[in-house]
Design brief:
This is Solute carrier family 66 member 2. By secondary structure, this protein is mainly α. The protein has eleven helices and no strands. It has helices at residues 2-30, 33-43, 51-70, 75-101, 118-126, 152-173, 177-192, 195-205, 213-232, 237-259, 265-272.
Length: 274
Amino acid sequence: MDWIISDELGLTVGHLVGWGAASAMIVGGVAPYIPQYRQIKKTQDADGFSLYVCLTLLVANTLRILFWFGKRYELPLLIQSIVMNATMFAMIHLCVTIRKKNQIIRARERIFTAQPDETANWLGQQSGFVGGEKPHRFYDMDKKYFWAWTDFQSYVDCMLVFSVLGAAITYLLIEFSPFVELIGFLAVFTEAMLGAPQIAKNLQNKSTEGMSVCMVIMWTFGDLFKTAYFVIREAPTQFWVCGSLQVLLDIVILLQVWMYRHNTAAARRIRRGD
């Protein structure tokens, strides 16, 4: 009788631990962006945060969702990808809104999809366009402005195009195992490179000001937990290998925080004796 109770208790504890770990995977991925979101909203300054971080995660998690259809992995990882995409769109919306609000002089609008607007109407008038349908400003193919559009809808449209194309190709090649494995690798490798845009942004600014250090610390602990989760749960090899790379990039960003610790507004005020 004792061994039956022991087995039932062990099963219950095992389930609780499993559910706790799964919940941590879903919520833990989003948690690091809460302090960054709050900091941007409080300071009304989005210049220290790289929107390419959002691009990296949107691409990675969209690929991971497609990978699920070819090779079923644990459901919490799929849910995490969906939740993360929603979170990244929330970050983009905040950053785009604040950057438009902070513009002293209205710059030329950069958009992904074609739509009529005042700038195009003005250009049409200058070129002698009279009456009829409003002229359209078409896809802005200048790579300098890719993922630097001035309206939120452009980011949504871009990811919709990427998702539809990816889904169509995956549907056609779903039975081709090397292709499915390639999607899985690209998904986790892209996510592993998450810190690279922020590293580049910090190098460009020679400062980590505007970037939430709390976010990076949470990245690091979250990626350590995630990598351990992949190993323990025997997730596909791509997951834990690229998870280890992600931890390494997190450490590089923390080193940048230490290197550029004197290149902040507060540090400059102290040096000036303000």
